[in-house]
Amino acid sequence: MSRLLYENSVSYKGYLIIPFVFGKADNYEIYSYKMLSEIGHRSKFNKAENPAEIYGSDVSKIIDTAKEHIDQNSEFVHRGDSFKSRYVYRNNLIIIFQEGDKYFYDHYPPELLNNIAAPKLFKSEYECLSWIKQGFDGRYVRQRVI
Asked: How far apart are CA 124 and CA 70, in angstroms?
C-alpha cells in the first residue's frame, strides 16, 4: 500500500474517508480507501479498509463508493462534523478536537491509521497546531549529550 492520501480525505456522516493507491494495472492506478469513525473503536468501520470491497479508477469514484456504503451500512446517527478541523502536514493527518475549553489532537502518520499523538491538552486550536508544528520541526527532540 502506498501512503494514505489524507489531502483527498472527505468527511461524510461521521466518517472520514481516506483514499489510497491500492495498486497499478497497465500503468493505471487502482484506488481503495480506509475509514475513521467519529465514535472510534465502537464502530466496526473505524480503521476499516474498503468494507465495500469495491475499487475505483480515480479518487472521486472511490469516495462515491465509500459514501454509498456508509449510506447503506451506517451504525450511528451523525452528530456533526468531528473531522472538520483536520490538517495535512508533511503527509501526516492532524485532527483537532475541542471539548469545552480544551483542545487535543489525533496524529496519523502517512502509511498507517495508528494515532501517535502525545496526550496533551491545549487552550486553543492555534496553540495545539503550533505545538505540533514545532514537534515536526524538531524543537521538541531530546538531544543526547556525550
From this structure: 32
The DSSP secondary structure of 61-99, one letter per residue, reads: HHHHHHHHHHHHH--S---S-TTSSEEEETTEEEEEEEE
Q: Are 33 and 66 in contact (CB under 8 A)?
A: yes
- pLDDT at res. 75: 86
Whole-Å CA distances, 74 to 30, 44, 69, 98, 109: 25, 10, 8, 24, 26
Q: What value does the mean pLDDT take over residues 10-14?
A: 95
Q: Report d(CA 95, CA 116) in Å as an integer.
A: 12
Global pTM value: 0.88
Q: Which helix (H) or strand (E) holds 28?
A: strand 28-37
- Return d(Cα 86, Cα 79) in angstroms, integer: 17
Residue 9, all three cell numbers: 480525505
Which run of H or of E encompasses 106? Answer: strand 102-108
Cβ atoms of residues 115 and 107 within 8 Å = yes
Q: What values do phi and psi take at 11, rounded to 5?
A: -90, 130
79 in Cβ contact with 47 (< 8 Å)? no
